[in-house]
Design brief:
The protein is mainly alpha-helical. Helices cover 84% and strands 0% of the residues.
């Protein structure tokens, strides 16, 4: 299960890069910068997890809660650009 979550986050980072390019092309530089920040946060969480610096389950739960919040924000931004509501 943990490997599956890590793989999903890695795929999300790739998707973020694509979405950032779409934002830049649409002159949405603030959103692109926010997505870049989220991407860096996700990378940090993955690195912390891989290095096993996070020992307590409470800290791990907090990190995964942040990941879920980021995924929801990414979904909202994606929906804005690709469901026609940005027109």
């Amino acid at each position: 299960m943990k490997k599956q979550i890590v793989h999903t986050i890695e795929k999300t980072i790739i998707s973020l890069e694509i979405l950032m390019e779409v934002c830049k092309k649409n002159n949405e530089h603030i959103i692109s910068a926010e997505l870049s920040s989220i991407k860096e946060e996700l990378k940090t969480i993955l690195n912390e997890d891989h290095d096993q610096k996070i020992k307590s389950s409470g800290a791990m739960i907090a990190n995964w809660a942040r990941v879920l919040a980021f995924l929801k924000l990414i979904q909202d931004i994606y929906t804005h650009f690709f469901d026609g509501s940005s027109k």
